[in-house]
Amino acid sequence: MWKLMHDEAISKEDRELVSEFILNSPKLTYGPKIKEFEKKWSEWLGVKHSVFVNSGSSANLLIVQAAHDLYGHGNWGAQSCTWATNVAPIMQLQKNTGLFLTDVDLKTLGPSLTDLESLFQKQNIKYFFLTHVLGLPSTTPKLLELCQKYNVKLFEDCCESHGSTIQNQKVGTFGLASSFSFFYGHHITTIEGGMICTNDDEFYNRLILLRSHGLLRELPEEERVKNIIPDIDQRFTFLCPGYNVRNTDVHAVLGLSQMKRLPLTVEARNRNFKVFVENLDPQKYHTDFETDGVSLFAFPVIAKGVSLKRVSKVLDSFGVEYRPLIAGNLMRHPMMNSINTFRKFKNADLIHDNSYYVGNNEWVTEEQVKELTKVLNEA
Fold this sequence. Notes:
The chain folds into two domains: 7-259, Aspartate Aminotransferase, domain 2 (3-Layer(aba) Sandwich); 262-377, Aspartate Aminotransferase, domain 1. The radius of gyration is 21 Å and the shape is globular. The longest helix is centred in the C-terminal third of the chain and has 18 residues, at 262-279. By secondary structure, it is an alpha/beta fold. The chain has helices at residues 12-24, 32-45, 56-71, 84-93, 113-123, 141-149, 201-211, 221-226, 249-259, 262-279, 308-317, 346-354, 366-377; strands spanning 49-53, 75-79, 99-102, 125-131, 153-157, 165-166, 169-170, 177-181, 194-198, 298-302, 323-324, 355-359.
């Protein structure tokens, strides 16, 4: 059976390292291994700061909260094909301010740039939360140009896109901050976990406060000294309302082990995507994707010359596991009923009604990808 989440995601070596750490470390909670993992991740991505949290969803939550705390409330934009927790924090933290979605570009599954400029012009968008769907990078030069032109702060959700690039620059380095997920099925896993990345010192300082109760002691020494309150013990001084979304050293040890094979993982996922696109029948499926710089999370199966019912029947008969292409058009979900904005999007609706995704990972071979396309082409 072709599984979405592969059994080899946590290797024997990973398990041995984590077991050894548990047996020999006196402290398993938030500690030095988290700092080590954050440093290694920052070096790999090419950013100044990384903040390890308990999930990619929590990473998005802290990004939205930090943006509001530092720059104030304002209208947010996002694309209509995205994961629910990309927009949920905006709705939870900003009930009286606008959230506006765009249609998507079928080449990248990112926002339609025509829709995006119209949105920026008409809705006074202050923040845009971009999702790199399934590992297809969407921070095109034109998108960055539009954000600069309309003074929109860009945030990147890279939870499915570790190692994807635009013009040899990794996604997650273009906006003010970015989020990554280390859930079990992703490029690397800490079982549950997420990372927030930024080059902005002020944003970083806010994130580490928000991660851990708003405690003064979390700040770098120079910032901590500036914020000392003379009549309150520094160990328990609360500077702002915060959360507790810390992760543990156990998860960080697993992340450090997984990072060793991340370059080969990215290479394999990109190779698999190119084989997939080259062998899929363009009369039956959408194949006009941008393939450069893709670190593919899962194969997008967007039917156009065959019914989705027929596709599911064929995949079922060959034991291939599949899912909807994340949310399809998120505006069609009940969670969005409170958002009073345009709900119909041509491309997002096409994806909603005609697509699945099938899992991809570094152990999937070119021969297996060709077998998958052969199965799909027979639908």
